[in-house]
Write a structure and sequence with these properties.
- By secondary structure, the chain is of the alpha/beta class.
- The protein is built from 18 helices and eight strands.
- The strands form two sheets. Strands 2-3-4-1-5 form a five-stranded parallel beta sheet. Strands 6-8-7 form a three-stranded antiparallel beta sheet.
- α7 runs parallel beside α10 and α8 packs across α15.
- The protein is globular.
Length: 409
């Protein structure tokens, strides 16, 4: 059966079932087990949700009978860590939350979504749960329902929970871009429902009811503002050994092209031109260091390859319109200080680089977000800028150069 280029599919199980091309990132599962409570940030469209899906399939005890099918062809399938299919999985995607105009509306959305997941969890793991299972009360605080469930796991010596939170900062980012800073402050206040939720996660880690917590997002502002309630977070975004966990290296792209050209019997005479186009438009990202190979945006590369195979020629449209999702943040950036923005744009337009404050890379809060020195760091996390060296950022590729011009014009 010929493999397929599956563009924008974030479900690992679906990729395997539909025989999709897959760049094997499973060695990072073993590396992640060396870090507790990791927080990993990358721009949108870089494959975070697929990574979360892969982790769920690996650790979920309900997938034990499917392990060979899902992972037999992968590195981790040949080198399992011993923790495969050992946990109850609580998987939350905060991008699914509806954002209201008040903290009450946001909390209501949070309760409805998270309590619904907790209630469904009891059905998913009905074979594990048995006596005196605590009832999930949909109108109660999420932290209360979660705390009761974690206590139940410990009391009956049941398998611990592995928590995956994708796009943890999504609704907070929306508040910032919508100029609802006062609501954001309420969201991250000491007595807020969100901070209480993260405190409950922290307590679950302390007692052992939670085996680990994996968090993804785009910006570090929320995790910084929640620090007093969740000071166990391990920020791995800028660690060298995790730089290539998302995004494709040149070697991975070469191997992928070899397979596609062979499977689809594509004229090898087009290979050089294709390589030049994808390198100029989708490569060039350095998140941690500039010493190694740059990274391709994996989702955008699959967008290109999907159309290339379908049209049997290099597509005219090389920019995925779904990439233009951060225009609201850029508008807020411009509105916050037009003069700073003008200086920023001129620096990039004239010198093709911009200096940055490296003290802001690992941690900056909402109050620092739109200050002049934070502009480059913000766009670095949004994926519009990348490292040139230890002192300057630059635009990573032609794709981002075109988007940059459109945004700031």
């Amino acid at each position: 059966m010929k493999k397929q280029v599956l563009y924008a599919i974030a479900n690992y199980e679906e990729i395997v079932q539909d025989h999709g091309y897959f760049v094997d990132k499973t060695p990072y599962i073993e590396k992640l087990e060396t870090v507790k409570n990791p927080v990993f940030l990358r721009p949108r469209r870089f494959g975070k949700s697929l990574l979360c899906s892969m982790l769920r399939c690996y650790y979920d005890l309900n997938y034990q009978s499917h392990f060979a099918k899902l992972f037999g062809h992968t590195w981790i399938g040949q080198h399992p860590t011993g923790k495969q299919n050992q946990f109850i999985i609580l998987s939350l995607d905060f991008s699914s939350l509806e954002i209201g105009s008040s903290i009450t509306e946001i909390e209501h959305s949070f309760r409805r979504y998270c309590n619904g997941i907790l209630a469904f969890l009891q059905h998913e793991y009905a074979d594990v749960f048995s006596n005196d299972l605590p009832k999930i009360i949909l109108d109660d605080a999420v932290s209360s329902n979660l705390a009761n469930l974690l206590h139940y796991l410990r009391a009956y010596h049941l398998p611990p929970m592995y928590v995956i939170i994708d796009e943890y900062d999504n609704f907070a980012n929306q508040l910032v871009t919508a100029h609802q800073d006062h609501v954001y402050c309420e969201l991250t206040a000491d007595n807020s429902f969100l901070k209480t939720f993260f405190k409950t996660l922290k307590e679950g880690r302390k007692t052992g009811a939670i085996a680990d917590i994996f968090v993804t997002g785009v910006l570090p502002i929320t995790i910084d503002d929640l620090a007093s309630g969740y000071n166990i977070a391990n920020f791995i975004t800028l660690r060298p050994k995790f730089e290539s966990m998302l995004g494709f290296t040149q070697a991975e792209v070469d191997k992928l092209l070899d397979e596609i050209y062979h499977d689809y019997e594509i004229d090898s005479g087009t290979r050089r031109e294709v390589e030049a186009v994808i390198k100029n438009h989708y490569d060039g990202y350095h998140f941690v260091t500039v010493d190694g190979d740059p990274l391709y945006n994996s989702t955008l590369l699959m967008y290109f390859l999907h159309r290339f195979i379908d049209e049997q020629t290099i597509p005219k449209q090389l920019i995925d319109l779904n990439l233009k999702t951060d225009i609201s943040m850029v508008k807020r950036l411009i509105a916050s200080n037009p003069e700073h923005t003008k200086d920023f744009v001129e620096q990039l337009a004239l010198h093709h680089k911009i200096g940055y404050d490296d003290t802001l890379l690992e941690s900056f809060n909402q109050f620092q977000l739109f200050k002049k020195g934070s502009f480059p760091v913000l766009l670095f996390y949004l994926g519009m800028l990348t490292r040139q060296d230890d002192f300057y950022f630059k635009l990573p590729n032609l794709n981002m150069q075109q988007i940059f011009v459109e945004y700031f014009n």
